[in-house]
Design goal:
Number of domains of chain A: 1
CATH class of chain A: Alpha Beta
Distance between the termini of chain A: 37 Å
Oligomer: heterodimer
Shape of chain B: globular
Largest sheet of chain A: 5 strands, parallel
Number of domains of chain B: 2
Radius of gyration of chain B: 20 Å
CATH topology of chain A: Rossmann fold
Strand order of the largest sheet of chain A: 1-2-3-7-6
Number of helices of chain B: 12
Helix content of chain B: 25-40%
Strand content of chain B: 15-25%
Helix content of chain A: 40-55%
Structural class of chain A: alpha/beta
Distance between the termini of chain B: 52 Å
CATH superfamily of chain A: Thiamin diphosphate (ThDP)-binding fold, Pyr/PP domains
Largest sheet of chain B: 7 strands, mixed
CATH architecture of chain A: 3-Layer(aba) Sandwich
Structural class of chain B: alpha/beta
Largest interface: A-B, 46 and 41 residues
Number of strands of chain A: 7
Strand content of chain A: 5-15%
Strand order of the largest sheet of chain B: 3-2-4-5-7-6-12
CATH architecture of the largest domain in chain B: 3-Layer(aba) Sandwich
Number of helices of chain A: 13
Radius of gyration of chain A: 20 Å
Shape of chain A: globular
Chain lengths: 342, 332
């Protein structure tokens, strides 16, 4: 990506990483996408309430800075594996919200032609190898994708997103170990939102920080405030450089919070209203980023309003696209099980 | 011109197939536990690491779940991994990646991807390895749409079906009976494939169809030779693939012989025999049956260590002879 010019860079010397590294246009685009993720999930939630979407969904509202920060230094050819809470990753990696809505609505125009839904949302053309319904399921797959990158010398970096719950799965440990032994170009990103469903990390995890587990696999373990875009992007940037240089994997723990419950069945009995309110009012990642952009002179109120209205329009168009798209025919239930049938 | 045909063991045939696959396609590589300098627990990879190097013959840590997942991820992104489980029993450690990921990824993503991974499973009893190293779990995987599950019974098929598996765009699970590894048979040099999803009539007969899998094919053929002397003419169908199953070959055979017996090593209940029996009961061949269908499968126990008990836990040639004789003579 083209960065800031030299003169501009000098004037930003004391600002946090992303304001030195990226242009105003790029950073405004980040704000746009953070809003796009937020409004997409709000739109999906509302559509669910109205009965337009069935099943369940896991919303990442409150975690947008993490998805955007990690994906900021990635190129279109780089790949990610995602999680059941993966809408933000998908958008951050370049997906179109209209095709995501279409997938949630179960339509043929969706990214998975209506076969996957929220929990398997993917956009392979943009490098998103798919969300995953199994906690930790994508982590070894990301290591395999990184092995492909190394064997085929494509230079691709692979990011594996997972949550705090996954760090107690065997797959996490097996995958990190192999990635380190083979020095693969993969970045493990733990979005620690404090709870695996209802069980807090304090009750489930023996180490204080999940990043501490990196030591067991001889890789850097980095802790970032997952609600501050610049912090996340800086850690990701360094991990990508390390991976591209052939120095192996990094574990990034991004400490964050989900505003909504685990899924649609959550009664929020394991955390207090005060705790949720505190995160929403005082540590909202979009508000924090927006305030910084304004403070550092990258955007004004008019610019913010333009972003918000642009996002609102894209969301409305996306939902409309999904509504009018065709459903798959029942006669096609057996499609895509095997390659020959496609 | 016909390719030169030699006598190779089943294990040598697999090794040759893997070498040919790696020569033909640089995306093909091998992964597994101790498949490098050790040569694999059953010496199937043998010296391949010397020819192809540690970059293409990769020793994994003892991490079946992670290793299988790495193979799935590599297949998803353009490589053609052949992943060896040291024993098929260890599939239990990797079921998540096999069943939830490899089998479903193409479907879940609406056909946008494929997972051309080959997984090899040394299976079965008879080696004194006891209950955790002797199982026949092929029906577990045969239950999962998205997977293809094969059980070659001869060196010829072992090579040809492995090459077909590597060329296949979908995940193929190969169950190799450990007692077959030393079995010798004619194997042509060079590249050839044996189709997945096609059964083979190993012996034609009039009186009884035996549908057998894996090592039970040879046992059924041995039984058929004895029964022939008694005037009982047995047709032996080698199922070869359990998913997708070649129903028509079995149906046609049963219509011809009017009797069906299924012989397989896995635990009898809820297995391949049940599937084949039910398939025949649902087909036009049902009306041709002159006798109830018989299943001969493994005992409803884990595989015992004691050699006499171990033999008793799975069908043996005399068991097949007795059951076939009773079936043809109507002793039920």
């Amino acid at each position: 990506m083209a960065g800031a010019s030299k003169a501009v860079a000098d004037s930003r010397a004391n600002l946090p990483f992303v304001y030195r590294q990226y242009s105003a246009e790029q950073l405004k685009q980040v704000l746009y996408k953070m809003y796009l993720i937020r409004r997409f999930e709000e739109g999906a939630e509302e559509s669910y309430m109205r009965g337009l979407i069935h099943g369940t969904m896991h919303l990442s509202i409150g975690q947008e800075a993490c998805a955007m920060g990690i994906c900021m230094p990635l190129g279109e050819d780089d790949q990610i594996t995602s999680t059941h809470r993966g809408h933000g990753h998908c958008i951050a990696k370049g997906a179109e919200v209209k095709r995501m809505f279409a997938e949630f609505f179960g339509k043929t125009t969706g990214y998975c032609k209506g076969r996957g839904g929220s929990m398997h949302i993917a956009d392979v053309a943009k490098g998103n190898l798919g969300a995953n319904g199994i906690v930790g399921g994508g982590i070894p797959i990301a290591v395999g994708a990184a092995l492909s990158s190394k064997m085929m010398k494509t230079g691709k970096v692979v990011v594996s997103f997972f949550g705090d719950g996954a760090n107690n799965e065997g797959a996490f440990h097996e995958a990190l170990n192999m990635a380190a032994v083979w020095k693969l170009p993969v970045i493990f990103v733990c979005e620690n939102n404090g709870y695996g469903m209802s069980t807090s990390t304090a009750r489930s995890t023996a180490v204080k920080n999940i990043a501490d587990r990196a030591a067991a696999y001889s890789m850097p373990g980095v802790i970032v405030n997952g609600n501050i875009f610049s912090e996340v992007a800086e850690a990701s940037y360094k991990a990508v450089e390390r991976a591209r240089a052939g120095e192996g994997p990094t574990l990034i723990e991004s400490k964050t919070y989900r505003h909504r419950g685990h899924s649609k069945s959550d009664r929020n009995r394991y955390r207090t209203k005060e705790e949720i309110e505190d995160w929403m009012s005082n540590r909202d990642p979009i508000t924090l980023f927006e305030n910084e952009l304004r403070e550092f002179g990258f955007i004004d109120d008019e610019g913010i309003e333009a972003i918000r209205s642009g996002v609102a329009q894209e969301i409305a168009d996306g939902i409309e696209f999904a509504k009018v798209s065709p459903s798959p025919d029942v006669s096609e239930t057996g499609n895509y099980v095997y390659t020959e049938q496609a | 011109m016909d390719a030169m045909v030699r006598e190779l063991s089943y294990a040598q045939a697999i090794q040759e197939a893997m070498a040919i696959a790696m020569d033909m396609d640089e995306r093909v590589f091998l992964m597994g536990e101790d498949i490098g300098v050790y040569g694999g627990a059953f010496q199937v990879t043998g010296d391949l690491v010397e020819r192809y190097g540690t970059e293409r013959v990769i020793d994994t840590p003892i991490s079946e779940l992670g290793g299988a997942g790495v193979a799935v991820g590599a297949a998803l992104t353009g490589m053609r991994p052949i992943f060896e489980f040291q024993f098929s029993d260890f599939a239990t450690l990797a079921m998540e990646q096999i069943v939830n990921q490899a089998a479903k990824m193409r479907f879940m993503l609406g056909g946008e991807v494929s997972v051309p991974v080959v997984m090899r499973f040394p299976a079965g009893s008879g080696t004194g390895a006891a209950a955790q190293h002797s199982q026949s779990l092929e029906a577990w995987l045969g239950h999962v749409p998205g997977l293809k599950v094969i059980q070659p019974a001869t060196p010829y098929d072992a090579k040809g079906m492995l090459l077909a598996a590597v060329a296949d765009p979908d995940p193929v699970m190969i169950f190799e009976h450990k007692l077959l590894y030393k079995m010798k048979g004619p194997v042509p040099e060079g590249y050839y494939t044996v189709p997945i999803g096609k059964a083979d009539i190993r012996r034609e007969g009039r009186d009884l169809t035996i549908v057998a899998t894996s090592i039970m094919v040879q046992k059924a053929l041995d039984a058929a030779a004895t029964l022939e002397a008694e005037g009982i003419d047995v047709e032996v169908v080698d199922l070869r693939t359990i998913r997708p199953m070649d129903k028509q070959t079995v149906i046609d055979s049963v219509k011809k012989t009017s009797r069906l017996m299924c012989v397989y090593e896995a635990v009898k209940t809820l297995g391949i025999g049940a599937e084949v029996s039910a398939m025949i009961a649902e087909s036009e061949a049902f009306d041709y049956l002159d006798a109830p269908i018989v299943r001969l499968g493994g005992a409803e126990t884990p595989i015992p260590y004691n050699p006499e008990l171990e033999k008793a836990a799975v069908p043996q040639v005399p068991d097949i002879i007795t059951a076939a004789r009773d079936l043809v003579k109507g002793v039920r």
